[in-house]
């Protein structure tokens, strides 16, 4: 279901094939690599602050470490636009191969960078450079892989296939939290500070060559090949960035609305919550990581179910009740944790939050990729996704930590999620693209279920 006007109809989709499966595998590896790295940075942010930002108080060091984390996200929209334009003009798979090389280089640099005690001010600059390289690469990672997976998916399974992009992130959360838990639980503080925190980044860098090999051998989708042929023959005009705002601005706002609540919830509950409960509620970090691991299992298993349901009932028909329900449950969940902090309450809250996140975010890749026409799809998904993630995801840990320090309130994360939910609902509900998508979902599913009730003829 493409919601914007197209220059021509896409070619008929091929049945499920080796190409679609290969695209799925490449997506899982690339997205898993991305999230494994960034979540490890958050989990070990306290140690990274000591190793690279050992200036002033522990609060200042921690803020500098989180600010460096956030800075990597500030360049994501730039990387997303540049890589998106490259993908729309040259090819999706070539752009994704470049992304993998950049991500591998940034992760390896972070894992090998000497500490402040060895290099002085050059040490945090190396961390900054690594985060900038990763930020530029990650700007194209999720969006471009989502486009490839959805374009190669068979009809009626766009949301289901796209949901595996989300499952790959859950798999990375499993591996990252599990690896971090094992290191924290089995190494001394001295060993963790000296070398233990580097292990996840060095492991992550080893995945890069495998991901590059697989992605380099993924063929372009039939839809993109048809578009490229049309451009060569002059049947349609090549994508131009200056036309994007005029032609796709409304679609981009809708796409941001789709993403904002999911990314805000994910970054707070899965990335920042372990650090939050350690610093604010004084619960052990390793226990919070165990809860995140359990949530990762739920996400990994249920994201495809969420995508399947979105294909059946309509992604936009499910979007509104799910986001509103999550909005209403956020404060009670945080009250449940804060009023009497305990590991049992934390685990229960994390499991409930994971179920909501799965239901809301499972269809996101398919929803984003079907909003834009083929010639602007990579750029549109990359720009809207990265703006949403940068403003409401990557900056979330620093924003919430700062507001918590200023206000002294334990409920700042809940306020943040509620605010993100309201922005999401507004952007999807009040854009023409969002209204058209909901109407299309209702019409499609009404026709589908009516057809199901028609008795067979003799």
TrEMBL record:
<dbReference type="InterPro" id="IPR036259">
    <property type="entry name" value="MFS_trans_sf"/>
</dbReference>
<dbReference type="InterPro" id="IPR051084">
    <property type="entry name" value="H+-coupled_symporters"/>
</dbReference>
<keyword id="KW-0812">Transmembrane</keyword>
<dbReference type="InterPro" id="IPR020846">
    <property type="entry name" value="MFS_dom"/>
</dbReference>
<dbReference type="GO" id="GO:0015293">
    <property type="term" value="F:symporter activity"/>
</dbReference>
<feature type="transmembrane region" description="Helical">
    <location>
        <begin position="289"/>
        <end position="306"/>
    </location>
</feature>
<feature type="transmembrane region" description="Helical">
    <location>
        <begin position="23"/>
        <end position="44"/>
    </location>
</feature>
<feature type="transmembrane region" description="Helical">
    <location>
        <begin position="383"/>
        <end position="404"/>
    </location>
</feature>
<dbReference type="GO" id="GO:0005886">
    <property type="term" value="C:plasma membrane"/>
</dbReference>
<feature type="domain" description="Major facilitator superfamily (MFS) profile">
    <location>
        <begin position="23"/>
        <end position="437"/>
    </location>
</feature>
<feature type="transmembrane region" description="Helical">
    <location>
        <begin position="195"/>
        <end position="214"/>
    </location>
</feature>
<protein>
    <submittedName>
        <fullName>Major facilitator transporter</fullName>
    </submittedName>
</protein>
<feature type="transmembrane region" description="Helical">
    <location>
        <begin position="318"/>
        <end position="337"/>
    </location>
</feature>
<keyword id="KW-1003">Cell membrane</keyword>
<dbReference type="InterPro" id="IPR011701">
    <property type="entry name" value="MFS"/>
</dbReference>
<feature type="transmembrane region" description="Helical">
    <location>
        <begin position="98"/>
        <end position="119"/>
    </location>
</feature>
<keyword id="KW-0472">Membrane</keyword>
<feature type="transmembrane region" description="Helical">
    <location>
        <begin position="343"/>
        <end position="362"/>
    </location>
</feature>
<feature type="transmembrane region" description="Helical">
    <location>
        <begin position="162"/>
        <end position="183"/>
    </location>
</feature>
<feature type="transmembrane region" description="Helical">
    <location>
        <begin position="250"/>
        <end position="269"/>
    </location>
</feature>
<dbReference type="Pfam" id="PF07690">
    <property type="entry name" value="MFS_1"/>
</dbReference>
<feature type="transmembrane region" description="Helical">
    <location>
        <begin position="64"/>
        <end position="86"/>
    </location>
</feature>
<keyword id="KW-1133">Transmembrane helix</keyword>
<feature type="transmembrane region" description="Helical">
    <location>
        <begin position="125"/>
        <end position="150"/>
    </location>
</feature>
<keyword id="KW-0769">Symport</keyword>
<feature type="transmembrane region" description="Helical">
    <location>
        <begin position="410"/>
        <end position="430"/>
    </location>
</feature>
<keyword id="KW-0813">Transport</keyword>
